Every structure is written in C-alpha cells, then in structure tokens.
Prior knowledge:
- Helices cover 47% and strands 12% of the residues.
- By secondary structure, it is α/β, with parallel strands linked by helices.
Amino acid sequence: MGMPADERVWRTLAGEAVDRPPLCLWHHFQPGGSPRALADATVDFFGGFTLDLYKVMPDLPYPDPPAGVGGLELWEALPELGAAAGEPLHPMAEAVAAVRLARPESVVLATVFSPLALALRFARGGPAFARQAAADASAVRRGLATLTRNTAALCRACLQAGADGIYFATAGLGDDLLSEADYRAFGRPTDLEVLAAAAPGRCTVVHLHAARGLNWRLAADYPAAVVSWSDRTTGIPLREVAAALPGRTLMGGIDETGAIVRGDRTALEAELRDAVRQTGGRRLILAGGCSLPDDVNPDHIHLARGLVDDLAG
C-alpha cells in the first residue's frame, strides 16, 4: 500500500525519503458558479485517481471589471472585494471548506491567480497592459493595489477554510507578455505582498506560468516551499532549478501536452523516470507543468498513476 498520501507529501517537502514521489494532475471543471459543484468535482477527480494532493481549481473566477469599463478608466473602477461569508470572493473559500470536510486527511491546495495575471486578463493582454502602464503608471498601480488587497484576502480566507497552502499562479514571466522591467515594476511587488498573506500555509506553491521564454530566476527568491513550471515545454530542466534552489521542492516532470495526452506509455514512463533521475527522487512532486486538456482521456491519467506506483518498486 505504501505510505499515506499526506505523509508522502510532507516528507517530500522536508527533503526526506519517500516510497515514491507524490503525483498531482489536474484540469479545469465547469461548476457553473457553484462552490458545492466545484468541491464535488474536486473530490471525485482527485479521489477517483488517488492523487496525492487535492488542488481546488480557480473555476469560480475572480469577477470581471464593471461592464463597459476599459482603458485607463479600468484601473480606477476595480472594486474592493472581500472574501468573508456573503462577499464576492467567498465562494472559493466555501469550496475549499467543503473539500476539507470531505477529505480531512488530505493535502489541499487552493489555486489563486496573481494580481498581475488578473490585470493582464482585464487589460486584454500584455501589449495593452504595457501601453497603459506607460501612459499612466500611477493609475495602473492603484488598480493593482486593489487587486492585491483582494487577492490577499482570498488567500487568507482559503487558508482559514482549511487549505494547507495556496497554489499561486503567476503570469508575465514568459511568453513575451511583458518586459523584465515591467514585471519588476508591476509583478514582483504585488506577488510578494500576496505571498506574505499566503505565508501561514504549510504548502505554498509558486507556479511560474509560461510555455516559452520563462525568466524563472526573476522569481527564484519568492517565499514558497514548492516551485512549479512547465519544465518540458519551456526546456528549463528540473536539474537546473534543483541546483539553484536546493531547499525547494519542485513540481513538474510531465509534459501536459505530450505523452499523457496521447496515452503513450513508453514516453510517459521515460518522462517520469527522467524526472526522478534529475532530482534524485527527493523534493519532487510529479505533475504536469500546467492543466491537462479538459477532455483528457481518464485512462491516460490512470496510466500515469500506475506508472508512478511502479517507481516504488
């Protein structure tokens, strides 16, 4: 049977020996705005595949800006949003609480997008955001400050609801979305403020989202136990980050667009064993670099689960 999943995760974060690396895979659900539906989908998916962590997806999204507001007016129009009961951001915390109630022994993560990720979405992309930041940096900073306060409140509410940590998903470190200067000006300060709110979590994960051109070193000092990125698609290998950040647990090793989608047993097994070789099997959570396609064949996830079990042999 091996060790319990929660013990496997906590021992991995401590750099201790485990029977096999923990496994976490995910895709998006369609809860229709219902915290209960999101919680049920989470329990069914992660429990059905006996994955080692339960990741509550951001599928009760942060509300869009007021209708019809765009351009520089957008940043002044962003409202303060609370996450307490009855407030706009509470449904995510409600879903976390329901997952915790259903799985009291499991490691539960709440997925939260960074303030800059939200800002890039609201501005409709990196170039538009950069233009607005160049036109009126003060207005953009005020809007980001609002997003940051709201996101920090959401992190605190999710931790209070029972999450063991925040899976903090950044944007803007790659994919040619922003210059390094703009990320330093608008991304790092807001990231660090939210991560301070997430600090009480035992398993904070920083996800450096990009498919190419990832400047991971710009976030190398972020305070988090776990670093996640698409190591296969970006070409930044696990061994490189492990050497630079020896005290961190790494999350990756599986190409979320590759063998697991095709159901290619040989290639998937090679990915898993290569990830273990690169890290020595310590401080490693096997995972996709990002979400699997929503229509991924469940048999392929079962395949990955069985192959990971084989690593214990």
